[in-house]
Amino acid sequence: MEYKLFIDGQWVNAGPMMEVKNKYNGQTVAALPTARREDVDAAIAAAQRAAQVMADMPAYKRAEILLRTASLLCERSEDLAKTIAAEAGKALKFARAEVDRAISTFTIASEEAKRLHGETFPLDAVPSGEGYFGFWVRRPVGVIAAISPFNFPLNLVAHKVAPALASGNSLVLKPATSTPLAAVKLCQALQDAGLPAGAINLIVGSGGTVGEWLITDKRIDKITFTGSPPVGEHILAVAGIKKVTLELGNTSPVIIAPDADLDFVAKRCAVGAYYNSGQVCISVQRIYSQKQVYEPFTEKFIKATDAMIVGDPLDERVDVGPMIDSKEVDRIESWVKEAQASGAKILTGGKRDGAVYYPTVLTNVNADMKVIAEETFAPVASVISCDDFEESLRQANDTKFGLQVGVFTKDIDRVLKAVKRLNFGGVIINDTPNFRADHMPYGGNRQSGLGREGVKFAMEDMTNIQMVAIRQSS
């Protein structure tokens, strides 16, 4: 099936056609054109024209469009889930969960569109403000460039698109080249919901060309990007003076205290480490278990890992499908072999079948190994024994990243100590770092990014505060 780009309310052809492959069997599932320089220019120009239309649109109308979009996504949910499973290799059960989350994201955005407001401000709190009345409001920034990753091709697009529209902006959307189809279908839903022409524009192409044209264009008022730290750093270097939100990497740790329910923890960690083949920026990667429970937990974790069903993501029974491409399998395979050469042991897994890498548990690892120091973004987790809770906190914190961390304990003193000590954007108690509710503030510290997502919080980053001071006549 052939699709087109979406520019200024029209589905248009553009540059050379690009095939989208089923990540499990390699078959072509669709094709669509890549954007040329003139297509990117047309998309930005259309967004510029629509920016004022969106800014002037009453909040209730923006809310109605977003709610109709959520309804259309619900009606088309099974087609969307199968599209995600095919183009991203995500197990169908998790693809369906992603669609459900995207519906929630748009529903929340429809509500938050009606809550965007400012405050009165007491200018006469200082002598120079005597005789003035003040208030501030939030105004949309204008044109937003949204660049989304392959691992959540619908909901991470939704987390950029929904708050941008809710706050009265227009967008140019560039989804990942390996998984653009869910974004195409989202644009179809937005069009059917009555979104004005130019309010969202879809372009497709490589980051090195299409992405570069987009982020360096001075007509773009804000960039929101989810992807790797090196690309995020490049964006900051070349974007110029504009607002930037970055959602980057993590080496997600889990801390297990001796009072944790080990059966529950093992099952949650297995899902958290291996769903979507570990290709989630908050996938369980480093598991720090106190030595009193290290052996029983490791045994239970291996059992839970081996219970994961690997295969075709469109099979209802499957838990773990392929990675996004064979190059990524080559990379993680080399990382694991490098760790083995330095003393790491494979307790289960460590094998591949084409684009599939089997869920893998490592031990005897150290902090210098890539599987610990860098984001694996693969179905590989390491179990590490620690002398005590303090040592677990120290090792979990010993990273350049800081997105989310999971802590399993029933002890409130440990909980409070973890919250105080851990330098992460999210501390998840009695669950894995994978937990995310789509309305909560979500984002990282350190090299994990800048700004926060979660609809309300993204809308704050997608608006500017406009101060109004009125001098009152005497």
Task: Present the secondary structure layout.
Layout: E1 5-7, E2 10-12, E3 17-21, E4 28-33, H1 37-56, H2 59-75, H3 77-88, H4 92-112, E5 119-121, E6 132-140, E7 143-147, H5 155-166, E8 170-174, H6 181-192, E9 200-202, H7 207-216, E10 222-226, H8 229-238, E11 243-247, E12 253-256, H9 262-274, E13 286-290, H10 291-306, H11 326-341, E14 345-348, E15 352-353, E16 356-357, E17 360-363, H12 370-373, E18 380-386, H13 389-397, E19 404-408, H14 412-421, E20 426-429, E21 449-450, H15 455-461, E22 463-471
Describe the fold and architecture.
By secondary structure, this protein is of the alpha/beta class. It folds into two domains: 5-248 and 447-470, Aldehyde Dehydrogenase, Chain A, domain 1 (3-Layer(aba) Sandwich); 253-441, Aldehyde Dehydrogenase, Chain A, domain 2, CATH 3.40.309.10. It has 15 helices and 22 strands. The strands form six sheets. Strands 14-17-18-13-12-19-20 form a seven-stranded mixed beta sheet, with helices on both faces. Strands 9-8-7-10-11-21 form a six-stranded mixed beta sheet, with helices on both faces. The protein has a three-stranded antiparallel beta sheet with strand order 5-6-22. Strand 17, helix 12 and strand 18 form a beta-alpha-beta unit.
